Amino acid sequence: MNMKKWIPAALSTALVATALAACTDGDSADSDTERVLRIASTTLGGDDGSWFRQQFTEIFEYAHKNIKLEFVPVVDESIMYGPVKEGEERPDPLVKLKEVMQGPNPPDVVMVDLPQMKELISENLLKPLDPLIAKDKFDTSGILPSVMEGLSSVSGDGKLYALAPLFSSSAIVYNKKIFMDAGVEFPSDEMTWDQLFDLARRVSGGEGENQKWGFNFQSQGYSDIFESSFMYTAPLGLEYFSEDKKSLAVDSEQWEAVWTKLIQLSKDKVMPSLDPNDPSSQMRFRGNGQNPFSYDDFMSGRLAMTIMNYGQLSQIDNANKNAANLTGYTPIEYDVAALPTHPENPGVAAGLTLYGIMGINSKAGNEADAWRFLKFINGEDWARAKSNNNYQLVSHKKYIKQPANNLNMEAFFKNKPLTEGQTEMYWIYQQRNPNLIQAYTLGRQELMSAIRGEKSVKEALAAWKTQGDQLLSQPVNSGGSGGAAIAVPAG
């Protein structure tokens, strides 16, 4: 997943200055001793670590002039993201990271994502942080419980092996006027998905230009339900593949129930049409020059509820501020509620993604500075300096700023992050077997055949499995796309 798109280009000098009060972190005694701190990640943003430096280390480097940072390249990005030649396999970045971590000059700090973190813990490649936290009395009480619980749940034993200073989160955004006009109560935190769908059904109605839909996973343009419904399916633990990745696991009653429910919501006009060839879908976004946001159901007032990332809210705020200059736009009074969860997995949602997850290599040569660095970027001063980020939120609750419109900001950190359901998408994304990608994407056309009534849901899922299993039984590079990219839903 490309995290760069969520991140501002650089830190300002003013932000650097704000963190200097706690810059030495108690190491003044050896401040003249020069040493090296080595950092590795599969997403450093170039061999020189330029992106990583801008995002995480500039303040630390300014405050610790005696510590030289070295960024350890793990994979060549041109190989990782470029085309794969016939007969070659794309390198697995996690395998490469493990090799580097156990090499002759190992990195001290590693940045990972949750699926990578779980695998490294299972192989004893990360050092437990609890003893270091206890020894230094490092205060983690201000860090959001959802962040701490998400990190500690990965290990399976409740131990903490990494910290994360930032997170990105999504929530249910709702148009208050649509609910008030329908005489229906607003969405609330701690809803189940069925409760949200019930609310959506109650605020849906109208015809033609006056049509109001209750909910959609996305609001802009035609919504690819196959990808966007990941928010709904992932916390259920629905598997695409068997454990050995040699066959599909989609011909189940649970998959059938999910597809049936989503298709019925669209048939009942609770959700917009899921078929891009449906004339109503094409007319919806055609626009007539009277509405600058005709491409967006929510911004056009046609949709009561949708899912938005925290960073997307600025579009609504900017439009509302400039409504006088936007012909055809009506300001939207809105608020947010936490993403619904499933009774089978209460309090866990796919919309919260932790960023900057970093731990200490078990074979670190400079463990002291590695821990000093982790404390620094997970401390209050760093959080305060980074709190103006419009795309991500800081993990310290104290420095999550309340918008002027008094939104329910707790909605963005009410739930815990998904730790299990992302693992399979990680496998697909890393393309260990290019045939996985093709087998996965076959589901899109079969779901569309069910939406159009060409097959029953059960028949469509069976066809997906049959075709997918045939692909997975072929040699990896046999007639395949050689690693064509797919869109992986982000939290």
UniProtKB/TrEMBL annotation:
Query: Which keywords accompany this UniProt record?
Result: Signal
What is the phylogenetic placement of the source species in the record? Bacteria, Bacillati, Bacillota, Bacilli, Bacillales
**Signal sequence span per UniProt?**
1-21
Q: Which organism is it from?
A: Paenibacillus thermoaerophilus
Q: InterPro entries this protein is in? A: Bact_solute-bd_prot1, SBP
Q: What is this protein called?
A: ABC transporter substrate-binding protein
Q: Which domain of life is it from?
A: Bacteria
**Pfam families named in the record:** SBP_bac_1 (PF01547)
